[in-house]
Amino acid sequence: MLNIGVLISGGGTNLQAVIDGTESGEIKGQVKVVISSKQGAYGLERAKNHNIKAICETDEDKIIEILKENKIDLVVLAGYLKIISPKLVNEFRNKMINIHPSLIPSFCGAGFYGEKVHQAVIDYGAKVSGATVHFVNEEADAGPIIMQDTVKVMDDDDAKTLAKRVLEVEHTILPKCVKLFCEGKISVEGRKVKVSE
Ligand code: GRF
Questions:
Q1: Cα–Cα distance between 79 and 82 in angstroms, integer?
Q2: Catalytic residue numbers?
């Protein structure tokens, strides 16, 4: 049973999907702590509703301390809007994953978060979009890709309708990646990730 730490900044629907996966037994892991960069983020309420430690913290040294105190084996960034410093990346290299609401390497990196991502997809005229789960490295949204899935971009989509469709994909592939990680079925060689399902 692995110890999972989740970092959030907002509503936490991806956090909820992971919590649900651990409680159903699908994920052989336990969410031990949720850390939010934003006071009052609803994701903190979600954690409290499930008797999970919920902490608001922005100082990275303190975040590292909390993760170590809780013997965290896997850090999940779920709607976490701060850039991770090299120090934190190094502490959890290939043990920290992020969910991004586009098909990396498109529409990602600095400034691409939340609805801005989906607006950029629509403005560009892309025909498919989707979500990506990847390991976190020093560059934003640039670590080795673990899993992706796609959605069609409809002619009448706006950022909100596309975001909603992509979020459904996020809620599927993120818990799936956490499950596979907890089962030791994910291996990384350079940029290549192998998943034995
Ligand atoms: C999601 O779109 C996720 O892809 C992005 O931030 C948003 C947060 O969603 N990283 P939630 O807080 O998990 O509901």
A1: 9
A2: 100
Length of the chain: 197
Pocket residue to mutate for ligand 1, from 42, 99, 168, most atoms within 8 A of Cβ: 99
Determine what percent of the chain is predicted with pLDDT higher than 70. Answer: 100
DSSP string, 87-144: HHHHHTTTSEEEEESS-TTSS-STT--THHHHHHHHHHT-SEEEEEEEE--SSTT-SP
> Is 80 exceeded by the pLDDT of residue 197?
no
Whole-angstrom Cα distance, residue 163 to residue 78? 15
Would you say the CB of residue 14 lies under 6 angstroms from ligand 1? Answer: yes
Q: Does 78 sit in the ligand 1 pocket, CB within 6 Å? A: yes
Residue 146 is predicted with a pLDDT of 98
Pinpoint the alpha helices (H) of the chain: 13-24, 42-49, 60-69, 86-91, 115-124, 159-182
Task: Answer yes or no: is the C-beta of 133 below 6 A from any ligand 1 atom.
Answer: no
**Is residue 115 within 8 Å of residue 160, measured between CB atoms?**
yes
Q: Write down the pTM of the prediction.
A: 0.97
CA 25, CA 126: separation in Å to the nearest integer?
Answer: 37
